[in-house]
């Protein structure tokens, strides 16, 4: 499975027409992805059949949210659920950079029956195995991770370990500078089957169909 992270509508349309399995829709690439605009989502849902997972993140920076920000996350899930989101992507940490059991559980329950992915906030936690077990307990279907490192290639040892131990219970979605030139190496080493990329080549602004096709070929 190949998921393409799309930060604006041009990339979203390119990816939705491509061989990718689904997209993750968000905005603000410089902030690592925030909740997208509902009108853009509605436009894409009306035009394309491919699954669209929606990022639920009210601000950039860390992953600890105050009450107002958490309320915004609740409202966003309710809104995008109403208009047909195929999945949600979010992650809440506490003040100690550990998984917030109560708040994440609330949002997963709210989203049901729509599947939820815990994003790369996971890589900020101190013990990836413990965090993985917590997320399985909460009911997340997928974890997006680079294995606790800046890139998936750097974190390949941790990714391999997580996949060996937990892939039967939760999908380990490998992300973090995954590109056509390294996806085969990452796949062979980790035995991973789920990959995440923006598919934006160096010095370009938008997702690239040829890059997606290359990654798809190497990922299967």
Write up what this structure looks like.
Helices cover 39% and strands 15% of the residues. It is α/β, with parallel strands linked by helices. The protein has a single domain, classed as TIM Barrel (Alpha-Beta Barrel). Helix 3 packs parallel to helix 4.
Domain tally: 1
Structural class of the secondary elements? alpha/beta
Average pLDDT, all residues: 96
Radius of gyration from the alpha-carbon trace, in angstroms: 16 Å
User: What is the share of helical residues?
Assistant: 25-40%
Subcellular location: Cytoplasm
InterPro entries: CutC-like, CutC-like_dom_sf
Family: Belongs to the CutC family.
Organism: Halpernia frigidisoli
Short structural description:
The protein is of the alpha/beta class and 220 residues long.
Distinctive features:
8 helices; 220 residues; globular; 39% helix; alpha/beta; TIM Barrel; single chain
């Amino acid at each position: 499975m190949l998921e393409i992270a799309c930060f604006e509508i041009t990339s979203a349309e390119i990816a939705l027409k491509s061989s990718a399995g689904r997209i993750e829709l968000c905005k603000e690439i410089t902030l690592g992805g925030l909740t997208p605009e509902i009108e853009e989502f509605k436009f894409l849902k009306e035009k394309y059949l491919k699954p669209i997972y929606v990022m639920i993140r009210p601000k950039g920076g860390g992953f600890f949210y105050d009450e107002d920000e958490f309320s915004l996350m609740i409202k966003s899930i309710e809104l995008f659920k109403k208009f047909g989101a195929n999945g949600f992507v979010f992650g809440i940490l506490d003040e100690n950079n550990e998984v917030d059991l109560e708040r994440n559980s609330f949002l997963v329950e709210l989203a049901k029956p729509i599947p939820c992915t815990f994003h790369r906030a996971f890589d900020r936690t101190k013990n990836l195995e413990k965090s993985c077990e917590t997320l399985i307990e909460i009911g997340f279907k997928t974890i997006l991770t680079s294995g606790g490192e800046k890139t998936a290639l750097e974190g390949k040892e941790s990714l391999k370990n997580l996949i060996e131990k937990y892939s039967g219970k939760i999908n380990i979605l490998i992300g973090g500078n995954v590109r056509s030139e390294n996806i085969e190496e990452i796949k062979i080493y980790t035995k991973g089957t789920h990959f995440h990329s923006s598919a934006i080549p160096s010095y370009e602004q938008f997702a690239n169909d040829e890059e997606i096709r290359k990654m798809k070929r190497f990922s299967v």
